[in-house]
Amino acid sequence: MFKNMLVVLEENPEAVTAYAISLAKRIGARPTVIRPRRDGQGLSDGSMEARLELTRGDAGSRRAKAVDALETFRELATAAGVDAEILLPDGGADPRRDQVSTFARVFAFSILGQTEPGRAPMLDELAGPLLEESGRPVLIVPAIQRGAAHFGTIVVAWDGSAAAARAFGDAIEILERADKVEVVSITNANTPRAVLQGGERLVGRLHQGGVNATFRRLPSEEDPANALLSYVADIGADMLVAGGYGHSRLREALFGGVTRTLLSSQTLPMFLSH
Hints:
Number of strands: 10
Largest sheet: 10 strands, mixed
Distance between the termini: 19 Å
CATH topology of the largest domain: Rossmann fold
CATH class of the largest domain: Alpha Beta
Number of domains: 2
Strand order of the largest sheet: 3-2-1-4-5-10-9-6-7-8
Helix content: 40-55%
CATH architecture of the largest domain: 3-Layer(aba) Sandwich
Shape: globular
Order of helices and strands: EHEHHEHEHEEHHEHEHEHHE
């Protein structure tokens, strides 16, 4: 049950703050909110402003920004009637960036914002470690997100993989709240019949729970990630549920991959499991 969730605030926290509060209210979860301590760690992640700030060693400025972001979350959550646990810097419970994946293991899922629109994720950003190392799903909010959490149409990406199966299972509580769910397989001449049969069975499982669900087979010879992104944009989907990092992050960084493309070009919230 999604009774708790970890909210990770980093650069430009406005989109993830508003979305996380509305999501917590909708599903009845209590968010725990952190702004991970950097402690002079890697300069390759985040915005140019953040990198320059780290180079200058402006610890006081970093702490002030962290407190401001966390207190803003507290105020907005209180106004929305959401009880939130806020872990302020230097309180002893706020984790460093390299500790976030371990910290996240005790929560139902984590939610964080897209680091920088239009740029592929780097190896030292939090989305990858959270997916691969926390053992919990991660909900990533795009930087352009302005609306509250909405479950009108949710698309489940299905390729028959273990990661896709885990994502479906992890997201079931959200899927059961959706007005409509589409299980979508990007197919070509080589798609195994078992993948299509699996998609139909997932829809049957959703029907048993009273969910309005359909299976959609989308023939396409283009990259599956781009085909998915085009489809969810065309139908105005509210969320994409998908398996994350079927290959290692290093391999995807070197050779490309579905998750890397989804994260760099996302336009809607994505619920990912590894």
